[in-house]
Amino acid sequence: MELLKQRIMEEGIVLNNRVLKVDSFLNHQIDPKLFVAMGKEIAERFKDKGIQRIVTIEASGIAVALPVAIEMDVPLVFARKKKSILMTDDVYHSVVYSYTKEENYDVTISKRFLPEGEKVLIIDDFLASGEAAMGLCKLVESAGDTVEGIAIVIEKSFQPGRERLERAGYDVQSLVRIKAFENDRCVFIEE
Ligand code: 5GP
């Protein structure tokens, strides 16, 4: 997605040759018009999959997933990273290793918001090792639902996430794919 590549080139900051900081438009401050455009693009890519529900993970995934859910006209549910005291009912859960925080955490979704037998689209902001997406897939499948696809905003293709998810049989669609970081700049895979 050209618009997104442009923003990454103009505003993205590469940290330690490993992490891309895009908090001026994606992870902290949010550019609403860009998110609407990204939502339309993701919805278009999965329009023939009969998606019935979108699942993402707090916090950054929510803003990415919302315009997609509006475009597809389906419910959106986000996995929580900490169990809320308001979550008194039964939950589905999965353990995820955080790439940026370097620790394990439990992700949960209330069983009420993940009815059995639905076709689900998983959405996240970044794909690195694939831990977060894999954790969400396991959680969704434990509810008896089918993962119809995984939509990612920024994929770091030099890390093993895509390969891991594709090996497990999932359809992964990323709006931009980064081949490498070179001299603190992103080199993109041209598609
Ligand atoms: P994974 O689970 O695939 O290793 O990493 C994905 C998660 O880690 C995303 O949900 C995202 O929050 C975070 N993440 C991974 N790499 C980056 C990065 O380069 N920049 C930012 N801002 N977050 C990242």
What brief labels describe this structure?
29% helix, globular, six-stranded mixed β-sheet, 10 strands, 5 helices, alpha/beta, binds guanosine-5'-monophosphate, 191 residues, Rossmann fold, two-stranded antiparallel sheet
What this model shows, in words?
With 191 residues, the protein is an alpha/beta fold. It has a single domain (2-188), classed as 3-Layer(aba) Sandwich (Rossmann fold). 29% of the residues lie in helices and 34% in strands. The protein is built from five helices and ten strands, in the order H-E-E-H-E-H-E-E-E-E-H-E-H-E-E. It has helices at 2-11, 32-45, 60-72, 131-142, 161-167; strands at residues 13-15, 19-21, 53-57, 76-79, 91-97, 104-110, 119-127, 146-156, 172-182, 185-188. A six-stranded mixed β-sheet has the order 4-3-7-8-9-10, with helices on both faces. Helix 2 (32-45) crosses helix 3. The longest helix is centred in the N-terminal third of the chain and has 14 residues, at 32-45. It is globular. The N and C termini lie close together (9 Å). The model has no long low-confidence stretch (mean pLDDT 95). It binds guanosine-5'-monophosphate (5GP). Guanosine-5'-monophosphate (5GP) binds at residues 19-21, 27, 60, 99-100, 124-132, 156, 161. Its main location: cytoplasm. One of its GO terms (molecular function) is xanthine phosphoribosyltransferase activity. One of its GO terms (biological process) is purine ribonucleoside salvage. Homodimer. Residues 43-157 form the Phosphoribosyltransferase domain.
